[in-house]
Design brief:
Shape: elongated
Structural class: alpha/beta
Oligomer: single chain
CATH architecture of the largest domain: 3-Layer(aba) Sandwich
Order of helices and strands: EHEHEHEHHHHEHH
Radius of gyration: 28 Å
Number of strands: 5
CATH class of the largest domain: Alpha Beta
Low-confidence stretches: 1-11, 192-212
Mean pLDDT: 78
Helix content: 40-55%
CATH topology of the largest domain: Rossmann fold
Strand order of the largest sheet: 2-1-3-4-5
Strand content: 5-15%
Largest sheet: 5 strands, mixed
Length: 259
């Protein structure tokens, strides 16, 4: 008789710790992605300013809690950092098992990729374009609306911006309008399904299901019609009772005897 080997328990998802330079816009976006998808837990650590030394210091704090996270990452902007500074930061991340995600000139590059190619736009141009697409003034604390189509487009545009680069971080450091933040998004989502069945963005690469969306819209229409029918029925019943009381009293104001 063949003895079965005991199956090991699946490893629990500890989550992702992301150390960000100025964590307002990144945190808002990651929280929305996390709440929309059934992905890995995410903790955003704000380095409060993006200084290189502060970034390393905050990473060391996260790394000191060994085994607490499946992945530790740094998400920062190029801004005024020189290619040499970024190369030093990347070398430190490689030595300590930390993944580096970079956007040039800022994280708004990846946000704009939800709508269009960022190109070599400056920070002012990025915020102006986001304001135009949102129909309101762009604020870091409010972020952008996240939809299936926009996330898919941002991931594809992000990959296109660094396609063919042997060292993506090296290219991003010197080329505005590029980012590799989309790769962090893919790891957080992890090919999981959306929380809402109508938001059919399944396994990477992302795929939308128009059929699921139409089914949900049909159910909503049916529910509205059902509620409207119940409301009309109640009104008819009440109106019928009033007419019956008026008929029994007659139009002369005294009760009619029914034999």
């Amino acid at each position: 008789m063949t003895r079965r080997r005991p199956q090991s328990c699946p490893a629990s998802r500890k989550g992702v710790a992301v150390v960000v330079a100025e964590g307002v816009s990144e945190k808002v976006y990651l929280d929305r992605i996390r709440s929309r998808f059934d992905g890995m837990p995410v903790r955003t650590v704000d380095a409060r300013g993006g200084d290189m030394k502060r970034l390393v210091k905050e990473c060391e704090k996260v790394l000191s809690d060994k085994g607490a996270w499946d992945l530790v990452a740094v998400a920062t902007d190029v801004d005024e950092k020189s290619p040499e500074d970024i190369a030093k930061l990347k070398a430190w991340c490689d030595d300590n098992g930390v993944e580096l995600y970079l956007s040039n000139p800022s994280f708004e590059v990846f946000l704009l990729m939800h709508y269009e190619d960022a190109g070599g736009a400056s920070q002012d141009d990025l915020e102006s374009s986001l304001t135009r697409h949102l129909g309101r003034k762009y604020h870091k604390s409010r972020g952008i609306a996240v939809t299936d189509a926009s996330v898919k487009a941002a991931v594809e545009r992000g990959e296109t911006s660094i396609s063919g680069a042997g060292d993506p971080v090296g290219r991003i450091a010197v080329m505005p309008g590029t980012t590799n933040f989309q790769r962090l998004v893919r790891k957080i989502v992890g090919g999981k399904r959306l929380r809402r069945p109508s938001d059919a963005l399944g396994i990477v690469p992302f795929r939308e299901s128009a059929r699921a969306g139409l089914l949900l819209q049909g159910r909503r229409v049916m529910l509205v019609c059902l509620r409207l029918g119940i409301f009309i029925t109640i009104l008819r019943i009440r109106h019928g009772k009033r007419r019956l009381r008026w008929f029994r009293r007659g139009s002369w104001g005294f009760p009619l005897r029914v034999r």
